[in-house]
């Protein structure tokens, strides 16, 4: 299993996971849900206590990935398989994104 912290304006909003079976989950932190001033990170992932589950990387996160020749260069330089969307997201969405959301690798003990 791989985990990533999802930050909104540098504040941790939730956790994105890729499970060993390849499926993905996203869950907001209870503190984020409980604070009425904190927005959803996406219209497709509204604030709720439920765990979002998907067979594929959620479209919101998938749309953060580079495409075309940019994707090829990033994958080659970082030795990432072009179909490893989670790895690509961890590599590219940690500091250079459009918008307020960034994605950072989470440690296993978190």
Automatic annotation (TrEMBL):
Residues 5-103 form the HipA N-terminal subdomain domain. Pfam families: Couple_hipA. Keywords: Kinase, Transferase. One of its GO terms (molecular function) is kinase activity. NCBIfam families: couple_hipA (TIGR03071). This is Serine/threonine-protein kinase HipA. It comes from Mucilaginibacter gracilis.
């Amino acid at each position: 299993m791989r985990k990533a912290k999802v930050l909104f304006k540098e504040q941790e909003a939730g956790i994105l996971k890729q499970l060993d079976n390849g499926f993905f989950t996203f869950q907001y932190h209870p503190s984020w849900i409980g604070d009425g001033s904190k927005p959803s990170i996406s219209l497709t992932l509204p604030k709720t206590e439920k765990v979002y589950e998907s067979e594929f990387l959620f479209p919101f996160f998938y749309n953060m990935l580079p495409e075309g020749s940019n994707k090829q260069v990033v994958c080659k330089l970082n030795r990432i398989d072009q179909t490893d969307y989670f790895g690509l997201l961890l590599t590219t969405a940690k500091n250079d994104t459009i918008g307020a959301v960034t994605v950072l690798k989470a440690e296993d003990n978190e």
